[in-house]
Amino acid sequence: MLDRIEEFRRRRPRFTDEVVTLAHGAGGKASDALIGAVFVDAFANETLAPLADGAVLTLPSGEQVKGPLAHADDFVIALRDDSGWYRSFLRDRVKVELQDPLTPHRQLLDKLRQADVHNLFAYLESLK
């Protein structure tokens, strides 16, 4: 029985809605289903393989929960744990440590001048 449960957890979400609604942009389960069923294969590449920023949440008990960030706002933070479960917590009751693999790249952008970015894109365009 546990094997069947684990198999079900590993399945990709199915997108059964006929239209995309505001709920799909809210960052919750509807967003997760839309991204997993429609966009993951279309935009698959090495950089996007993790699909999300990571998060480490420390609960009041001291237990740490790690996984890809599924939702974050001012009140709630949610992630998928190692077993694939969607877990959400009130943000003011847990310690949040976000792990964004693109942080060094964003910091580098702050060091570039507008002219540097222009020259980079002009060079890339010339390679076509």
How would you concisely characterize the structure shown here?
The protein is built from 4 helices and 5 strands. It has 128 residues and is of the alpha+beta class.
What does this structure look like?
There is one protein chain. The chain is of the alpha+beta class and 128 residues long. Helix content is 35%, strand content 23%. The protein has a domain at 1-49. The protein has helices spanning 2-10, 29-42, 103-111, 114-126; strands spanning 54-58, 64-72, 76-80, 86-90, 95-99. The protein has a five-stranded antiparallel beta sheet, with no helix packed on it. Strand 2 (64-72) and strand 3 (76-80) form a beta hairpin.
What's the average pLDDT? 79
Instruction: Return the string of H and E elements.
Output: HHEEEEEHH
Radius of gyration: 19 Å
Shape: extended
Helix content: 25-40%
Low-confidence stretches: none
Distance between the termini: 55 Å
Biggest sheet descriptor: 5 strands, antiparallel
